[in-house]
Amino acid sequence: MQPDSPRDTPVSGTYSFDHADLGTSKGSADAFVGSRYAGVLDKIVVDGATDTPDFRLAISGRSVPLHTDFHAIVDGTSGDTYLQPVKARILNSSLVRTVPSKERRTRMGTCGTGRRGGSGAIEDLLKTAIRTDPRS
């Protein structure tokens, strides 16, 4: 602890947990989360990953495997968290999203190839969002 400047207190460690509830709405999001962090209290660098073998959206009810890798900066004095970037894989498709520092929420809407990154098949994303099999 830095008594004269608590914001400069060094922090570091690792954490992991099984069966994390990452869902913010109806649907399944039982995941494994693991990461490592280091820095000072007002700028903690976090690198981690999540694995959600049974990810599903309430709208479709279909489950697909979801893996993410993330890099975040956390201000431990305010709780502000900035994701930069999040890399996700749904089935065989990749998505990449960087959240600008003023945004509080993001949508993983990048698909296909291009300057934002990501590649994959529309069928993989359709399996996540619709009730019927997109190949039928």
Classify the helix fraction into a percent range.
Answer: under 10%
| C-alpha termini separation | 61 Å
Derived structural class: mainly beta
For the sheet with most strands, the description reads: 6 strands, antiparallel
Q: Describe the strand arrangement of the main beta sheet, using strand numbers.
A: 1-2-3-4-5-6
Structural description of this entry:
The structure is a single chain. With 136 residues, the chain is mostly beta strands. The protein has one domain (9-129). The chain contains 1 helix and 6 strands. The chain has one helix spanning 122-129, and strands spanning 10-21, 30-40, 43-56, 63-74, 81-90, 93-97. A 6-stranded antiparallel sheet has the order 1-2-3-4-5-6, with helices on one face. The longest helix is centred in the C-terminal third of the chain and has 8 residues, at 122-129. The model is unreliable at 105-117 (pLDDT under 50).
